[in-house]
């Protein structure tokens, strides 16, 4: 008896829900899922481009370009949505390309908007392009349809990533802009007729504005210093004729405090494989050349960044523990440029590939002595 | 499935059910609001706040369990005296108001969270209705059935939670743990700390209203409640470890944003966020169901009515709750309402403990 | 007087039932009448027994050797009882002179099939005998598995049909009070108990329950195991299954004969079954939720391929899945109804031809076919057919919730179902419990 009564009540409650009916929800085949977004500015108006895979019944998938202009990003997206009949879901965007001009003005607000929007995920990769956005998008679509490069998950660490290309995702950019102790660098790319894309290095952002550009070797150094886990096989060119392969790498930061001064020694340890060398060089020489080159380049990079008050190498992150949050607020302006940085490189040559290096024969000296005696 | 023995000492099934319920509801309540509260409390040394909160929480659970273990009947409502208007006014009505307030704020919070996470287009009222209807359905069952529901749900979702807890350290950077210096302890008298203080307390209210049949080992339950401290740490610190304090502070739901950064290749689903969010919502719904169940018991004992009457009354109260929750229109208001129920929270806990103490004294005199 | 009454009754009965036979026999100058239903008693085979019996009776003074004679005595039995005995398939020997009668167990007609291999619950490693319609035989099967004095049988009869219910009691394990109570519930039930549903009603359980509280098993091995677990097992005459009370949620994926495998394999099997149950209940709802309301949860690649396969499907996912589920239910039911030789054809037509054609006609998407196939297969993995039915029904609830609230509705539906299962109790014993919990606490 009791049971029946509250069952009735429950049915009433449920029917309330049922009566409310269906609201605006559309099946998956009435939705478009853009995978790439391009953002630029045309005379004070934001111009948004989207690449949408258009599913047709044929085996091949086609890509479509849609664009819209508006006063704000959301407005531009709304304008764009008016153009097509399907609902647009931004949840699957994997890649956001920004015009480099935007970066010069400052992208802080744009990134904030993306983080704020409910339907943009936190995980798309971010890049700048120097090209005209329209050409870039067309080129991308063209490349994909001709060459058939996978368009999902490019620029992702697990897929085609290499150490001398920078890779950042939206939330990292957001963190880089708002963090007290670190900044972020965003890759500079352009489309290419043959390949998927070209890299021109990276732009260093400071409070959302581009303050410096890094070339691809500097980017590689940045990744070596900063990315803890992702060491992949990398070739480093020492000079015209010599090339080594990095197998392992270890970075240590030693801080010493002398009153207000901070001394930092960055200790880099490498394990190498010689991959290309002149015949007359022995291991010691190659090693020395490598160490000198790394030291010089790293110091140059560090000094360059210190001058711009931007820290993309994670130097400041590691002294967070000595300060309070209030002190960290102006860390990059006041303390970071004054850190005395020294670089220490140690390299070990593991082997010479498939060939032996006869130059560094340990018996060589002994042999000579023997000959002289004779 | 493996009910029998754990870690050397025997855990009876009853205890296991209660422990599961206790831990799950705590997880459900903790991970949404708690990180924000912690981040608002102080600039430096959040670990101290976390520890203070955690230990007071466990201490209170301990006192409550100790008090209950001295009573013969595990339900305090069995000890109500014949003339109960005095106790009704001084103890039961504030407690009921506290529960109602908590339910209102909770469903509003969870509905907000849901619309952020999955149902962009659904009006918030309908989301609240589905939560509250489910919670009522759960609350109308017996307390034992709530425990058993939790057990089934735990069986279906616990592995997801474990995987997510592991993956939540995927993007963590150890140096974001710092700065950890504590420069002052003035925060103890400030509003965010007091708001966060005992914010989890409704989760252990049920210890005072257990059904009669249960034979419990209060000590075991107490020792298991120590598991809360790692959970609290995880709730507060995983967003900070990924973003750093200064960035994590900006998010409405820092833990959820932190999970959104985890990009996994092997899952069929795009992100873990939704799975975790769903688990949280189920746990929270069970928690609300329990609160409503206690509310029904209070009502039934306050007015000495039949179970059916109390159930009908509960449904009416729930409808009022839903309307009230629907009147809270902004997220800011939710925050102010959380502050409103703070005095009730402290009052009802102190009065509950005093009531248990009083019962114990009376019991002693009688024998 | 009684003699006349008796003969009249018999004559009367004979008028109405042509299969009632009355044969006379003269042994040692005494006339006896042998009465019985021809349809129940094999007269030609029984004749020898009768002769031996009466012969023995005559020689009783010289010390009997016949084993029947000890417990059979000539009596003046009430007419009603004798009539009852006739209907139960017994034989009455009527001594005209002394007006006394003897009720004899004859050789009965072969009305019951012999013990066969189980049809509904197939086992690979495990005892291969199955219960039959004859509850005496069933009890015998169990006694042969538990040869001890602890094993007792309690019987009651109910209703106009005189249906016999036999309760099996294992001393020290089975809760006697509970058995008494259940027995009383059956005895007190005013209406006829025809099917298992009537037992549910007699016990006061809801008719619309999703979970069978009185489940059936065909395997004596399982029944014995259940008795040893403290569950109450009883037989209803004419129903070739043992009825089990107080089954638990664990019985959905555990069965006693599993233990004949390696332990590691058994645990993997449990995991597999749990996964199967999850798939059977949750997958269709998940499809609806992900297609209709929350496509953002899918990976891009998956989302695009589903989009492609749904390109020309004219109606929403909810309708689509309901159509397909309905079709599968039709195929299943049709295969049950039809003779085995034809039901294979149904499988081929339904599964292969229809499935292929329906996708090509763009009535449903190709992905859905996979979902439906997975669901149907997974549905078969649970231990009992009854549990399979429960799962079949539950998935619709989840589908409806999913269609309304997307992925949130999906889990809320799961929560509601869990809560529903958790509050199911039979006589205070919860359904979600460990083996003996609850049953034993009632004991104390």
Automatic annotation (TrEMBL), chain A:
* Location of the Spore germination protein N-terminal domain: 24-190
Domain Spore germination GerAC-like C-terminal, which positions? 201-353
Q: Which PANTHER family match?
A: SPORE GERMINATION PROTEIN B3
Origin superkingdom: Bacteria
Signal recorded as keyword: yes
Q: What is the lineage of its organism?
A: Bacteria, Bacillati, Bacillota, Bacilli, Bacillales
Q: What is this protein called?
A: Ger(X)C family spore germination protein
Q: Which organism is it from?
A: Oceanobacillus neutriphilus
* Family to which the UniProt record says this protein belongs: Belongs to the GerABKC lipoprotein family.
TrEMBL record, chain C:
Residue spans crossing the bilayer: 232-253, 265-293, 313-331, 338-358, 364-385, 397-422
Location in the cell reads: Cell membrane; Membrane
What's a Pfam family in this record? GerA
What the entry lists under InterPro entries is as follows: Spore_Ger, UPF0353/GerABKA_families
Q: Which UniProt keywords apply?
A: Membrane, Transmembrane, Transmembrane helix
Which regions form coiled coils?
A: none
Give the main localization category. Answer: membrane
In the bilayer, the protein is annotated as: Multi-pass membrane protein
Query: What protein family is recorded?
Result: Belongs to the GerABKA family.
Output this protein's name: Spore germination protein
The organism encoding this protein is Oceanobacillus neutriphilus
């Amino acid at each position: 008896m009791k049971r029946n009564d509250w069952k009735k009540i429950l049915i009433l409650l449920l029917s309330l829900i049922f009566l409310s009916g269906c609201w605006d929800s559309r099946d998956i085949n009435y939705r478009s899922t853009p995978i790439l977004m391009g953002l630029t500015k045309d005379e004070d108006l934001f111009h948004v481009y989207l690449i949408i895979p258009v599913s047709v019944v044929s085996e091949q998938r086609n890509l479509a370009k849609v664009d819209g202009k508006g006063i704000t990003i959301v407005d531009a997206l709304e304008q764009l949505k008016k153009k097509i009949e399907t609902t647009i879901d931004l949840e699957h965007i994997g890649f956001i390309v920004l015009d480099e001009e935007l970066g010069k003005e400052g992208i802080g607000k744009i990134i904030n908007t993306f983080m704020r929007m409910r339907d943009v995920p936190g995980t798309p990769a971010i890049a700048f392009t120097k090209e005209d956005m329209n050409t870039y998008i067309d080129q991308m679509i063209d490349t994909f349809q001709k060459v058939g490069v996978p368009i999902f998950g490019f620029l992702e660490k697990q897929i085609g990533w290499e150490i001398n290309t920078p890779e950042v995702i939206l939330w990292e950019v957001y963190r880089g802009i708002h963090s007290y102790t670190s900044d972020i660098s965003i890759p500079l790319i352009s489309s290419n007729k043959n390949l998927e894309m070209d890299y021109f290095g990276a732009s260093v952002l400071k409070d959302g504005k581009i303050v410096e550009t890094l070339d691809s070797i500097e980017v590689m150094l940045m990744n070596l210093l900063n990315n803890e886990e992702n060491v992949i096989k990398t070739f480093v060119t020492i000079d015209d004729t010599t090339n080594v392969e990095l197998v392992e790498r270890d970075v240590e930061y030693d801080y010493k405090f002398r009153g207000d001064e901070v001394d930092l020694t960055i200790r880099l340890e490498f394990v190498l494989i010689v991959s290309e060398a002149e015949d007359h060089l022995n291991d010691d020489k190659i090693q020395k050349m490598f160490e000198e080159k790394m030291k010089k380049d790293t110091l140059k990079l560090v000094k360059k960044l210190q001058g711009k008050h931007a820290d993309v190498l994670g130097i400041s992150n590691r002294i967070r523990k000595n300060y309070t949050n209030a002190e960290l607020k102006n860390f990059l302006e006041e303390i970071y440029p004054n850190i005395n940085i020294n670089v220490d490189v140690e390299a070990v040559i593991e082997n010479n590939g498939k060939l032996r290096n006869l130059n560094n024969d340990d018996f060589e000296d002994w042999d000579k002595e023997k000959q002289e005696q004779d | 499935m493996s009910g029998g023995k754990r870690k050397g000492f025997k855990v009876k099934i009853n205890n296991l059910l209660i422990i599961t319920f206790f831990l799950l509801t705590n997880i459900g309540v903790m991970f949404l609001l708690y990180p924000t509260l912690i981040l608002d409390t102080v600039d430096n040394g959040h670990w101290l706040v976390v520890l203070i909160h955690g230990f007071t929480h466990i201490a209170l659970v301990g006192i409550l369990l100790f008090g209950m273990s001295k009573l013969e009947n595990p339900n305090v409502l069995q000890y109500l005296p014949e003339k109960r208007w005095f106790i009704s006014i001084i103890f039961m009505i504030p407690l009921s108001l506290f529960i109602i307030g908590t339910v209102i704020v909770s469903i509003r919070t969870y509905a907000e969270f849901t619309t952020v996470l999955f149902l962009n287009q659904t009006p918030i009222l309908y989301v609240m209705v589905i939560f509250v209807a489910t919670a009522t359905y759960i609350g109308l069952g017996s307390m034992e059935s709530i425990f058993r529901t939790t057990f089934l749900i735990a069986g279906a979702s616990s592995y997801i939670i474990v995987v997510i807890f592991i993956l939540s350290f995927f993007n963590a950077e150890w140096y974001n743990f710092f700065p950890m210096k504590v420069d002052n302890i003035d925060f103890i008298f400030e509003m965010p700390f007091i708001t966060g203080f005992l914010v989890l307390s409704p989760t252990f209210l049920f210890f005072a209203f257990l059904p009669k049949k249960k034979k419990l080992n209060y000590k075991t339950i107490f020792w298991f409640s120590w598991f809360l401290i790692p959970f609290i740490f995880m709730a507060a610190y995983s967003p900070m470890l990924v973003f750093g304090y200064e960035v994590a502070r900006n998010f409405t739901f820092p833990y959820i944003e932190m999970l959104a950064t985890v990009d996994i290749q092997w899952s069929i689903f795009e992100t873990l966020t939704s799975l975790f969010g769903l688990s949280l919502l189920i746990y929270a719904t069970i928690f609300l169901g329990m609160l409503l169940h206690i509310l029904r018991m209070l009502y039934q004992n306050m007015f000495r009515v039949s179970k059916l009457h109390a159930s009908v009354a509960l449904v009416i109260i729930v409808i009022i709750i839903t309307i009230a929750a629907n009147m809270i229109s902004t997220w800011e208001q939710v925050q102010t309402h959380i502050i409103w129920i703070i005095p009730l929270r402290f009052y009802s806990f102190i009065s509950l403990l005093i009531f248990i103490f009083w019962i114990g004294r009376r019991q002693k005199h009688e024998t | 007087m009684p003699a006349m009454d008796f003969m009249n009754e018999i004559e009367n009965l004979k008028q109405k039932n042509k299969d009632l036979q009355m044969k006379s026999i003269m042994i040692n100058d005494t006339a006896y009448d042998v009465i019985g239903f021809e349809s129940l008693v094999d007269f030609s085979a029984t004749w020898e027994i009768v002769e031996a019996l009466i012969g023995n009776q005559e020689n009783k003074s010289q010390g009997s050797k016949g084993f029947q004679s000890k417990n059979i005595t000539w009596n003046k039995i009430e007419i009603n009882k004798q009539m009852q005995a006739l209907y139960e398939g017994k034989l009455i020997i009527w001594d005209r002179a002394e007006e006394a009668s003897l009720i004899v167990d004859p050789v009965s007609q072969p009305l019951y099939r012999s013990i066969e291999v189980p049809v509904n619950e197939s086992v690979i490693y495990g005892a291969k005998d199955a219960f039959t319609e004859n509850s005496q035989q069933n009890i015998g099967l169990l006694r042969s598995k538990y040869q001890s004095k602890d094993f007792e049988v309690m019987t009651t009869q109910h209703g106009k049909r005189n249906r016999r219910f036999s309760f099996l009691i294992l001393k020290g394990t089975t809760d006697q009070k509970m058995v008494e109570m259940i027995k009383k519930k059956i005895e007190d039930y005013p209406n006829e108990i025809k099917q298992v549903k009537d037992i549910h009603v007699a016990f006061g359980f809801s008719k619309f329950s999703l979970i069978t509280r009185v489940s059936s098993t065909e395997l004596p091995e399982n029944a014995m195991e259940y008795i040893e677990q403290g569950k109450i097992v009883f037989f209803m005459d004419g129903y070739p299954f043992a009825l089990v009370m107080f089954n638990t949620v664990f019985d959905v994926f555990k069965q006693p004969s599993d233990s004949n495998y390696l332990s590691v394999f058994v645990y993997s099997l449990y995991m597999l079954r749990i996964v199967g149950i999850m798939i059977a209940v949750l997958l269709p709802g998940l499809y609806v939720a992900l297609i209709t309301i929350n496509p953002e949860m899918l990976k891009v690649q998956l989302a695009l391929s589903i989009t492609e396969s749904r390109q020309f499907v004219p109606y929403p996912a909810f309708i689509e899945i309901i159509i397909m589920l309905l079709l599968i239910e039709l195929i299943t039911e049709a295969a049950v109804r039809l003779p085995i030789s034809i039901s294979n054809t149904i499988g081929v037509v339904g599964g292969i031809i229809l499935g292929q054609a329906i996708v090509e006609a763009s009535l449903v998407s190709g992905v859905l076919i996979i979902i439906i196939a997975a669901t149907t297969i997974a549905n078969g993995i649970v231990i009992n057919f009854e549990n399979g039915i429960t799962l079949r029904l539950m998935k619709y609830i989840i589908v409806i919730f999913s269609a309304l609230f997307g992925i949130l509705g999906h889990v809320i539906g799961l929560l509601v179902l869990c809560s529903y299962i958790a509050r199911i109790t039979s006589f205070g014993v919860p359904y979600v419990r460990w083996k003996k919990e609850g049953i034993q606490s009632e004991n104390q």
